[in-house]
Amino acid sequence: MQKQLILLSLAFGTGLAACAQQTPVAGRVISQEDFINAAESTVNGVVSVKSFVTPRQQQYRGNGGYDPFFDDPMFQYFFGVPSQPRRQQPRQQEEPEQRQAGLGSGVIISDDGYIVTNNHVIDGAERLEVTLNDNRNFTATIVGADPVTDLALIKIDAPNLHVIPMGNSEDLHVGEWVLAVGNPFGFTSTVTSGIVSAKARNISTTTQSPSSGGIEAYIQTDAAVNRGNSGGALVNLSGELVGINTAIYSQTGTYAGCSFAIPTSIVQKVVGDLKQFGTVQRAFLGISFVELSPEFIAKEGLKGVTRGIYVAEVQDRTAAKEAGLVKGDVITHINGAEVVSTGSLQEVLARCSPGDRIRITYVRDGKTANVDVTLRNRDGKTSVTTPETAMGILGATFEKASDELLEKLEISRGVQVSITDNSGRFHEAGISDGFIITSVNNMKVSKPEDIEKIFDAIRALPAGEEKVMFISGYYPTGKAKYYAVDLN
Hints:
Layout: E1 4-7, E2 22-25, E3 28-31, H1 32-42, E4 46-53, H2 55-59, E5 99-108, E6 114-117, H3 119-122, E7 127-131, E8 137-146, E9 151-155, E10 177-182, E11 190-201, H4 203-207, E12 218-221, E13 233-236, E14 241-250, E15 259-263, H5 264-277, E16 287-291, H6 294-300, E17 309-314, H7 319-323, E18 330-334, E19 337-338, H8 342-350, E20 357-364, E21 367-374, H9 390-394, E22 396-400, H10 403-409, E23 415-419, H11 425-429, E24 436-440, E25 443-444, H12 448-459, E26 468-474, E27 480-486
Antiparallel strand pairs: 1-14, 2-3, 4-5, 4-7, 5-6, 6-9, 7-8, 8-9, 10-11, 10-13, 11-12, 12-15, 13-14, 14-15, 16-17, 17-18, 18-19, 18-20, 20-21, 22-23, 23-24, 24-25, 24-26, 26-27
């Protein structure tokens, strides 16, 4: 059976009995009390996150077609999407009730209710319910989400919460003891232990599997993690958060010895940007690259270097172009941190923002050189990036159609469009002011939020899939019209 990378939300306990009563670590002795204290100080800072959707929207993606993802357990999100009826549609006459679609974990990072979790835990949810370790329930709102790092920031209205202090993942050592805290299989407040197996792990490169297109610079551990642990805490023996548990690598869909967490060096940057700007301020170097290997070094005849990132292409209007990097250079360090793999390069850049100035150390023709350069965003600028919203991209605002208008057109529901930007996708598609949308991709819409959720679902489709809004509706004159709005 082929191994699969599976996104997390759970963790199974290995217990502390496997630990020696006293073990020397990094010049000091740790004991069972260290594990107990770390567990007791963090378990109340981890919450259960339940997502709810309507069955219709759960089984059908933005393109209106059936999504077999929900029937394939090997590709179910690791927060435990329940089994779905195969190709069963809700009755059109009924308004299906919301039901639980997934269960994951989250970590309280501020006493006023901010919680970090995985993007795949909250993705597509119509409602989020957070349960604290003392069984109190709260409805959560989404502050922001970042599919690239698979992180999300949510908030509940609750004061004086138990916070897990933020630790520095850069201080972790391979072989160091860590604890995973989460809700595996719905078993709340579960703690497991393990060691750090590797750092800056890029799963796609290591396994030769297709890249997800996101940032992969994981902390690899052997702490037992299972479905339901996604978004949970990885903590050190001081009770500090060092990572957010996210994925496992497994043949069966359950824990098989390799679990992966997003390091706090990335978490702090992403969460801070989501809170301040609503979107991540992501810096780009502007190169295509290859990891060095003995075979590649021999093939290219490289001199004076055995580890690093080989520059295969330099893109225009980028930091790399400004720095004077050329094809054939080998980057070995950024800001003094060794860069030897895809994961280590991604981790360094993920901590940076456009406008940040970095020092690049590289080898050219066997000679080492340094250059300082200012990083830019995807558009080649250093300015703040604003969130991509439905209203901004579509160039329109939406409001629920009035009862009088619905009655006049003899329709039961609809959302009326006001064009705000002649360069937006709606105007390009030919949609005019006043149009009443009744369905998008065969899904009925009755309020502006319906448009936004379908838009977000389409935009989140993997690269290569058709991203189109097929819109049906009427003008106030009664004329029916159909439009295709390209979101690629």
